[in-house]
Amino acid sequence: MIKFLDLQKINATYSDELKLAASEVIDSGWFLMGEKVNKFEKNLATYIGSSNAIGVGNGLDALRLILKGYIELGYMSEGDEVIVPANTYIASILAITENKLKPVLVEPNNLTFNLDIDLIEKNITTRTKAIMIVHLYGQVCWSNSIKDLAKKYNLKIIEDNAQAFGAQYGSVKTGALGDAAGFSFYPGKNLGALGDAGAVTTNDNELAEIIRALGNYGSKKKYFNEYQGLNSRLDEMQAAFLDIKLKYIENENQQRRQLASIYLNKINNKDVVLPFSSNNAIKVENNKEHVWHLFVIRHSKRNQLQDYLTKCGIETLIHYPIPASKQLAYKEMNELNFPITNSIHNEVLSLPISPVMTDKEVAIVINAVNSFKC
Ligand SMILES: *Cc1c(COP(=O)(O)O)cnc(C)c1O
């Protein structure tokens, strides 16, 4: 069986370092808001090129706290609108509705799967306060026109960087492109913790200070509560693990690029639509705009292809089978029509990709995909 993502194998690579770090934390007797978190936050801010990094409980909380921070600062209030891609993972949208803001779903580009930048402007109203871009599947969603639009309409740009850790546009890393960014270190993400973890990065010092307080009961000074906050903190154990794995992320992302390049060169089933790079002037293995969190192909008979691959001993996943707007949780959006989003959800299939896949496993996946007929 070829696993979709072999977390055991990925973490085994660093197991001596991880175990040592775990013992240090256990022996220190200090588990929250300590030096491991401080150190990781500093290293993360430096890596991303952002003036602030704040560890939080998970990726959803990172996005929730950014919006809550902007509300506390008076940039937005109940009923204001946030533009967000219709085909994103539901967490991006939950962060918006949870803050009593209105998600305005916009279709993605059919080739890149990322928010169609050309459709942003016609969705802006007097109540629009932010654009949440999602670097979906690991590919940067950016162009200078997003920045121009934000300036023209006085909007905040929030990055959902859960899937694109280490990607960059030119020399700027995702997480430093917009006004604030949410990160997830869910175990299966490119930089994965050994449990739930997340972070916010921003160059806005005022926002950073408020988010730090909001994630800690709304308190800057113990037992003094300025805001109605929540409890969402990165813990010492996860911070220690993440600090170790951060050292290897460039190397891991490079291995993902190399693997993507092999898939792109060798998968030749004419019914399969291969992932499209928004920057095809640069060779896949050199293109920093993609960190290949997922390798997503399309096929009109997706379910049959998935069944076939399962029979061949290959585990695949679907990101995602049901769009947020069609979920029971969002009945008010069930009637909205997003044809591109719907076709993506019906046709996409994610092949195994990870830094620990062997050449033999890659060859098995390629042969199986190429041999599928329908
Ligand atoms: C994983 C993910 C999140 C949420 O992160 P958690 O750490 O699981 O809360 C948010 N947005 C996107 C696009 C994600 O893939």
UniProtKB/TrEMBL annotation:
Pfam families: DegT_DnrJ_EryC1. Keywords: Aminotransferase, Pyridoxal phosphate, Transferase. GO terms for molecular function: transaminase activity. It comes from the Bacteria. Gene3D superfamilies: Aspartate Aminotransferase, domain 1, Type I PLP-dependent aspartate aminotransferase-like (Major domain). Belongs to the DegT/DnrJ/EryC1 family. This is DegT/DnrJ/EryC1/StrS family aminotransferase.
